[in-house]
Each structure stands twice: as C-alpha cells, then as structure tokens.
Amino acid sequence: MAWDFREIALATAQGLRERAEAIDAEQAVHGLDQLREIDLHEPVAQGLAQTGRGVLREVPFPGTDPGHRGDRPQRRDRLRCDLVLTPEPGQRLADPIEQIVEADRAAGGLFEARSLGDAPAGLPATEACWLELKAGGRAHLAGGWAAPARDYGSTLKTCLADIAKLAEEGDVREGGLLLVVFGPEERYARESVEGVVHAALDASMPVASPEHEGFEINDRIGNTWCGVGLIPVRTP
Q1: What torsion, rounded to 10 degrees, do the Cα atoms 50, 127, 57, 179 define?
Q2: Is the pLDDT of residue 68 over 50?
Q3: Could you give the strand order of the β-sheet that contains 211-216, starting from the edge strand earlier in sequence?
Q4: Environment class of 18 (CB within 10 Å of its CB; exposed 0-12, middle 13-18, buried 19+)
Q5: Cβ distance 51 to 83 under 8 Å?
Q6: Quick one: pLDDT at residue 76?
Q7: Which pLDDT score is estimated for 154?
Q8: Identity of the highest mean pLDDT range in 91-105, 117-131, 171-185
Q9: What is residue 14's predicted lDDT score, i.e. its pLDDT?
C-alpha cells in the first residue's frame, strides 16, 4: 500500500504537541526539548495511533544482520527500527528470521519442522511503513546549563546512517526518517531537515521531498519551535 507521509508528519507533530502541553500544564522545569530521544518515542507513537493505524515499537528488521554465526542470526545482534506502522491496529509482522529459529527448535524436538519455504505468519514487511526517529536542536542542556547544539556533522552522520539502514533492507519498501528539530524559529528546523535531504541525495540515497510540520514551544533553554520533518525513503 502507499503510505500518506503528510498524514504521518501531522500525527507525529500532534503527539509531540500534546506531550508539550501536558508538560506545560504540570509547570515542569524541563520542557519537551530536554527529553531524551528515546523518551520522544512514546508521544510520537500515541500521535500516530490516532490515525487508526497499528503502531509497533523497536521491531527487528526483517533481514539478516551482520554479527550472526553462519546462517543463524543472533537475536541480540539484529538491528531494530524505532517505529513501524501497520494498516490496521493489532497486526503483527511476519518475521522470516523467527521462522528459522522456530524451525531449528522444532527440528530438535518431537514435532516436524515447518518447511522454510512456507511464508511466515503475519503481515509482510513490505506492507508496513518503517520509521527511524532522530532528534536534535539549536540548544540543549549540558551539566544543567543551556549550551549550543552538539556537532552538526555528527548529527548528520547518524541521520544518513538511519536512511541507509532503511534503504538497504530488501523487504522495506516504504519508510522514512522522522527528524524532530528544536530551534529558535521554524526556518531553522526546515533548513536542518533540508540539509539532511540534500546530503542524502548527494549520496544517491532513495529519498523524496520531506514533509514539514511544527508548533511553538515555551522557551526554557533557547528553543521556541519544535519542527517535525519526515523524509520519505522508498525502494523499488
């Protein structure tokens, strides 16, 4: 199916906006822009769930990753995707690697192993939307004090690594990088997202024009805008 990336960007921003409003209502010292990246997953997932789609978190990629022994991957070594959308709530993804593990287990027991030629149960990875999330900003806390953003080059490198991860997974047809940018104005967020897009295109990565969304946040450490940029990654 074709995924509506505009809808995804809007839903992501809505989930973050609701969390920011809850933080303000609590009169919390630390704002949305001071949360850890991992802590943004929950409000983003809640926003995405409002679209009526299924939302899965920390899902192993369907392919076999480096770090396995022979043709049997080690579960702890598998790369995981931050958020995966399914067409309907409650759907689970088919996992070809889990099928191999189950077949190995069955072969060593009393029951006949299922043929590895059988399709694994669940929704094919090709029908889901795979999303990696990255967050950054103009200002952040360092030792309890507001400080300039971390090295831009390092942030760009991690963004490109996530795009490459999505592009190189053969069973991932549609996905994207969700980039949450905190800054002094909307223009800063947009330019940050566009910078990642241009770098990805220069590296011949299969990205499309980004979707932009955002909202104002209360200034606690120098950031007054939360921008959401969704960079689609589509493979043949």
Answers
A1: -80
A2: no
A3: 54-60, 80-86, 129-137, 174-183, 225-234, 211-216
A4: middle
A5: no
A6: 52
A7: 78
A8: 171-185
A9: 98
* pLDDT over 80 at 96, yes or no: no
3-class SS of residue 193? helix
Residue pLDDT, tens place only, 118-154: 555 789 999 999 999 999 886 554 444 444 555 556 7
The model's pTM? 0.84
Helices (H), the chain: 5-25, 41-49, 96-107, 152-168, 186-202
Is the CB of residue 110 less than 8 Å from the CB of residue 141?
no
8 Å CB contact between 56 and 129: no
- The DSSP symbol for 109 reads S
Amino acid letter, residue 46? Q
How far is residue 88's CA from residue 119's CA, in Å, rounded to a whole number? 20
Long-range contacts made by residues 200-206, C-beta under 8 angstroms, separation at least 24?
200/160, 200/163, 200/231, 203/160, 203/164, 205/160, 205/163, 205/164, 205/167, 205/233, 206/167, 206/233, 206/234, 206/235
| Tokens 């690594």 found at | 161
Both structure tokens of 182: 């905190």
215 Cβ contact partners less than 8 Å away, ≥ 6 residues apart: 13, 16, 17, 20, 225, 226
Q: Are strands 174-183 and 129-137 parallel, antiparallel or unpaired?
A: parallel
Map tokens 């926003």 to a residue.
47
Residue 225 DSSP symbol: E
Query: At which residue do the structure tokens 């909307």 appear?
Result: 186
Question: Which residue in the block uniquely carries the two structure tokens 């069955």?
Answer: 106
